[in-house]
Amino acid sequence: MKITVKGFGAKTFDGPVTLQELGKEYQKNFSSPIVAAIVNGCLRELTYVLDGDCEVEFLDMSSEIGMKIYLRSLIFLFVKACYDIYPDSKVYVEHSLGDGLYCEVVRKEPLSEDDVENIEKRMRQLVERDIPIKKQKMPIHEAIAMFKEAGMDDKVRVLKYRKSDFLNVYEIDGTKDYFYGYMLPSTGYLKWFGLKFYLPGIILQHPNRANPTHLAEYHERGPTF
């Protein structure tokens, strides 16, 4: 099959190849990690398998779409770490605040600086392990039942209004959640983040498109995105 990569010409392959595998050959030409691609005009995750002639345009973290995918995956990593450390908590990602996202972890005891340090430590452990972020196509009624059992009432309310019969549920090492949009293929991509205690919650710091592989000092100002 013949794959034409935008800006780099065509290349022939004997069999199927994932976008992640193909991207490794072109990564040196990008200033930040490749996180997705447009294949024949359609946005695809890096786990997507190319099995025929096609045109590919890679997207790195400096693109608007690429940064959104990074941030969405980072939120999932944060949620996963919170549930690992505090299984009975409820996690809410509220809104942009300065150079990050304001989040709350609701549990019996008020959040402390030590709690925030524990969550960040767990996040970095998950990144180091480079755990696959798996996607499962699930019937909507099964997803609603799963989230209801987990006490995720906000997800249940949202999904009740979905018209499609199926949705994509993502998983990191046993923790499942629903996000509207694509994800990165594994936790190893999520190297740039920080947590800051911001009573009564947490600021999840993230990079921006202008400098996607660098985390700036936190400054409280207007929304980044």
CATH architecture of the domain at 66-131 and 177-205: 2-Layer Sandwich
CATH superfamily of the domain at 66-131 and 177-205: Threonyl-trna Synthetase, Chain A, domain 2
Instruction: Give a quick account of the main beta sheet: strands, pairing sense, barrel closure.
Output: 5 strands, mixed
Mean pLDDT: 90
For the record, the CATH class of the domain at 66-131 and 177-205 is Alpha Beta
Shape, principal axes of CA atoms: globular
Assign the structural class, choosing from mainly alpha, mainly beta, alpha/beta, alpha+beta, or little secondary structure. alpha+beta
Q: Numbering strands along the chain, what is their spatial order in the largest sheet?
A: 2-1-7-4-5
- Strand fraction equals 25-35%
**Which sequence of SSEs, written as H and E, runs from N to C?**
EEEHEEEEHEEHEHHEEEE
Low-confidence stretches: none
- With helices defined by DSSP (H or I, 4 residues minimum), what is the helix count? 5
Distance between the termini: 39 Å
Residue share in helix? 25-40%
Spatial extent as radius of gyration:
19 Å
SS elements, strand count: 14
- CATH fold type of the domain at 66-131 and 177-205: Threonyl-tRNA Synthetase, Chain A, domain 2
SSE topology:
Blueprint: E1 2-5, E2 9-12, E3 17-18, H1 19-26, E4 34-39, E5 42-44, E6 49-50, E7 54-60, H2 64-85, E8 90-97, E9 100-106, H3 113-129, E10 133-139, H4 140-149, H5 153-159, E11 166-172, E12 175-178, E13 194-198, E14 201-205
Parallel strand pairs: 1-7
Antiparallel strand pairs: 1-2, 3-6, 4-5, 4-7, 8-9, 9-14, 10-11, 11-12, 13-14
Helix pairs in contact: 2-3, 4-5
